[in-house]
Amino acid sequence: MNSKYLRRWESHRIVLDKNEIRSCTECGMMENPIPYSSIEDVHIISRWDAGQKFCIRITVPDGSLLIQAHNSYIRDQWLHSVLWKKHMYKCEKLLKNARRPEVLVKEIKNMIDVSLTTNIQDASVYQFPLDLVSDLLQQNADFITRVAHENIIVALAPLLENNHPTQEICEFFSKHCKNSPRSSIVIELFTPVVQRILKHNTDFGKYPRMRGFVQEYVQALNCQNGGYDVVQNFVKSMHSPASACPHPRVLPNLVAVCLAAIYSCFEEKKNAMQDNTNTVLDIQEWENKLCCYIGMLDTMSAFADWRLVLGSLLQPIPFPNDALANELFTSKMKSVLRNIASDEKCDVHQTILGIREGKEGWFHLYTPGTIGCDDEGELWGVMLKSLIRCCCKRKKFLTELNKMIGPVMLLALRENEAAMEVLCAMLELEVVDNEDLKLQMVTTLQSTCKGKRMYAQLCERQIALRELQQKGGPKKLTLPSKSTDSDLAKMLSSGSFGNLECLSLAFTHVTSACANDLIKLPSLRYLNLWSTQFGDNGLQLISEYLQKLQVLNLCETPVTDKGLSCLATLKNLRKLNLNSTSLSKLTFEGLVEKLPALQECDVRYTDAW
Fold first, then answer.
1. What pTM was estimated for this model as a whole?
2. InterPro entries annotated for this entry (predicted)?
3. pLDDT of the residue at 239
């Protein structure tokens, strides 16, 4: 403390507490803290800057306190911090004692203006007003009028441009969306707040009222003129005009909102039906709400870069049983699933299958004859086409289709080409044991012109295959470097290779497509694919058919854990070269455990090395 006649300096570590300025070492002139309420003025003493004494003066009733900092920047930060603390202390006192709505609104505006104009760069500068307003909204909910309600929202808007609302403020906003869905505030002020939440929130599980606010905001948009289109345009705006969305959290957050809202819809309907009171459910309003959220999923599925994540999130069918038994729901979801199933990328359209054995997926839900199929199998045919022509023309998948052979034959009779291809593949790969069923499949194929042609081609391939597999021919075969898939197919079609045990395709240009020719070599024991483009799809196929394989070289191939894990079915494998592949340590340990005959495995330059 100083006066006109006395001044001395002391070293202190000063802290700005909630209600006062105090020193960590309470001694000397700072033995007693200085309450913010006693501070009359705070200003810089610039005349001392030349002497490297960067000071601010804090005036109190019985004198003043000089604080000297190391440089002008720290001094300025202390000045703004003390002023901000003093003002927040005053605002808090006024706001907690306010009993009139207009006074409350005025002081909230004043507090937020100070927070937005201060030079302090600290998260607490913006968080403190939000927390204080949250407390006030809970304490004064009874006397806040509709006009004050809107004025508070307007006052908070600038602060929320770069900050998330608290849970209490989210609940406050939700009430406004529910009570005044067509007010201008919803679109003008809530839209940027919701956009920020969707772009930056990482866990709605921790902030359920934040998700509830987004749901109510969507329903407020749905109440506008042309509400359905307004909601879908909002979803499109969250993706951005670019081909890829720059915000990775947007899609999971939108899906979380839709899933929670759909659950709420069916919970609301269930409660209304079980309620003994005279609660009446407005069916039209309920259906409008349900269609709104399914429409959001449909709009998301229209973006190619979103389909993989969307398909993965929907793959476990995360909806209540009441939804899956509801005709409106299953009908509206067809558009979403058609977009996912029609995607050319294997990882995307495979998400319509179950996540594991025994857990059915969308493909099973829309099988002809089930409750989800109301289009005579049209959507199921689209799903079947994508699967059979890309990643699932394998014995394992076709064996699982044995349970659905009736719907497959029904679609084949209706001249669905994908169903005909399935029947031909099942006959070719001998996945059906029942002779009567085989004859019925042949009869089904011969019932249509297209089916007759496909069956005739199958018979020709079978004759060629038998010739290829006849005993005789070389035991070893090495293709020249730079040979292609077509070169291999031409070579194998030139004679019988029933004795072929050793095949080297090292340093050729073959891809996974050649697997369809490799699986026709039943005696193959040694296969060298070193430095080729043979990938996961081919690996999955040969793992099912070449059960006699003992030596496999995949060095410098683009295989990943997805394909390598399939090698666990090759129980006769003795030597395996995975040098310079994308093998992980976990997959390697799994292979070692499941391959009892494995003696050598080269994993150099992999994560398992």
1. 0.78
2. CMIP, LRR_dom_sf, PH_CMIP
3. 94
